[in-house]
Each structure stands twice: as C-alpha cells, then as structure tokens.
Amino acid sequence: MALYVHNGTAATAYVALAYHSPGCEGDNWAKKGWWAIGPGGRATVRGGASNGAKYFWFAENDQGLQWAGPFTTQLPNRAFDWCWRTGSTDSRILGLRMLIVPTTSFNHSIVLQQ
What is the CB neighbour count within 10 angstroms for residue 37? Predict the structure, then answer.
C-alpha cells in the first residue's frame, strides 16, 4: 500500500511531495524531494495506506516539462526533507498540485505524461 509516481515521459523526472506530518513546525505539513525517476520508471514516494490522504506534489523533467499547481512553497535543487515553511537561499518558489486520494484507493499512482 503506497503512493507511487510513474514517469510516462521520455526524460528523467524529478518529484517533490508534501504530506501531513503532525508536529512539523507551524502547520503540520512536511515536504520531501527529489525522487529521480527514469523514463518509464516508477518510485514509491509515500509508504502505507494512501486512501483518503491529501498530498501536494510537483514534478519536472529534463525536457522542461513541469507539473505544477497553485500551492507555493520553497523547494531547493538539492535533496531535502523539511517542514512546509522551511526554505533556503538556494530554493525556488514552486507551485504544487493538490491530490486527495479516493478512500477506495489503497494504492494510488500519479502518472506523469507529456
């Protein structure tokens, strides 16, 4: 049981995920990245049952495609595991998409396509 990201593009994709994390400073949300997923590949970005959970996510690939949304936060170009409000001088402000996993979906996949 998990949340997966499938890369359906012809280039390596990089994924960041935000998830509920009680005790995380300020608003109980954490963010983590970057999973590098090769063309046609899949990564587990969150273990455990995902049914009914809310996530925020952002992805981009080596060809300049982005999967973005309106929920902005600071994300660095290096690997990170931070609370939502954490940032740094080497971060970009990027918009994440919201995902609410259906309660009937114990395993859920985000599919990146061109």
Answer: 22
